[in-house]
Each structure stands twice: as structure tokens, then as C-alpha cells.
Amino acid sequence: MTVGSCKIELRIPDSASLKAKRRVVKSLKDRVQARFNVGIAEVDRLDDWQRATLGVATVSNDARLVDETLSKVVNWIEANGEALVVDYEIDLVTH
Length: 95
Fold this sequence. Notes:
Blueprint: E1 2-11, H1 18-36, E2 39-44, E3 51-60, H2 63-80, E4 84-94
Antiparallel strand pairs: 1-3, 1-4, 2-3
């Protein structure tokens, strides 16, 4: 079994309020979860108008699949255009 987690640091340049930021983050979270079947949550920078940190997690018996899925999530968020990916980190734990 392989558990994968990904921490994604985002910048939301068009956000001028917490309400605008939360709209963008909620939209991203909902679409990522539906498209990739992963767990996702905002985990840091909750009160920063133009920054967000998302945590993404997935589990599989195939480490390659876990890594590919998390990489695809990052690439999809980058291509989406609502937020800029500033940094990300993927960690895999195999049991």
C-alpha cells in the first residue's frame, strides 16, 4: 500500500478579499476532488487574501499510480489559471 500526499502553495493574484479567495479555493477543491478522486483540503494561510496552501492525499497499491495522480493534480491546477502554483511537494509512504 502506498499513501501519497502533496502540499501545494498557491498565489491567487485576482483575489481582493477573503471571500474572493475562498470562492476560488472552493472551486478548485471541488473540481480536483471530482476529477481525480483524491482527498483535498486547505491546510494553511487561511487568512491570507492572495495565498493558499492545499493538502492533497491519495492511496493505492501502486506507487507509480499515486505519484502520477498527484503530479496530474498539480499540472491541472497550473493549467487551470485561477491560481498560480508557487511551490509543491509530493511525499510517498509505502507500507
